[in-house]
Request: fold
Amino acid sequence: MKTIDLRSDTVSHPTSAMREAMARAVLGDDVYHDDPTVNQLEADAAALFGKQAAVFVSSGTQGNLCALLAHCGRGESILVGDTSHIFRYEQGGMAQLGGIVPQPVPVQRNGALRLDDLQAAISPDDEHMAKTSLVTIENTHNAAGGIPLSVEYTAQVADFARSNGLRFHIDGARIFNAAAAYAVEPKALAEGADSLTFCLSKGLCAPVGSLLVGDAAFIKRARRARKVLGGGMRQAGILAAAGLIALHEMRLRLHEDHSNAQLLAEGLSEIPGVTIQSQRTNFVYFSLTAVAGLSAQEFAKALREDYQILISPYGGEQGLFRLRTHYWIDRTAIDKVIMAVGALLS
Ligand code: TLP
Reply:
């Protein structure tokens, strides 16, 4: 039986086209800027987002940290969502390694930061306080349930940043899911932002890698930051070759993952004991009511052991589960999951 892994889209493996491209990739030493495949990926990424330059990094976490280190000096403060990946799940790297002070702002149920809250969180011009220098948003918003933020909202944050003399960074780990959800070009979701990180290794199936885009001077500083973080890679074209397929082909099919997530939520919603909490882009959250008679851990264990279906219990024993669709989850897998959950709860 084939494992159906819905724990995250990060579990997606490279496609056979990617593996072939990796085998054929023309390579060089990227620390010397000599790897033609990396150079191509960086140029294409910059163009896709309407920015001057890009740098290939090992992960979303490294891309975000390079951005913050390149934008901010020690003792500066940034406005960041209180449930954002940068604030909650990156070990406070900005503070640990950059002396940058996070100023958390509440993330709303729609994944956005209210402009009033942002305004109120800017430090006054006071020598007691860390100077606010940057605002960041996350699109799609992971902890809010894969919610995509619109072009209009992004433009409002860009205006806010400009009028307050702040720089603006987007954690766009899943920006192409947002672009697919709104049927817009990626560059529209980066307009007015000084920088954006996006990942190749989530729904886009590349084995490793993210890109950070911005203007040429910023990317030069970000490359320095990448080097001191140990992220100067050598024949990285072998990874960039898969990245090019992610960027040009795989991003164009993400709407299929969104439809599959919708089908999954619809099917699960008909099973007594299951309550769908939310379904946006490729994310599905559901909970089990008391009727189900199984704890969250028992339920996940039974799915794993009896059906080889992997899901993430989320929020401890409260019975909330997070599922994410991706390239390797097709319609047949969706049907199997619905059938297995129905059988376990019958
Ligand atoms: N998120 C992972 C986990 O770390 C939670 C996941 O499974 O979703 N920004 C956002 C919005 C992310 O969701 C992630 C990864 C990152 C940044 C970091 O990317 P990586 O894992 O490449 O460092």
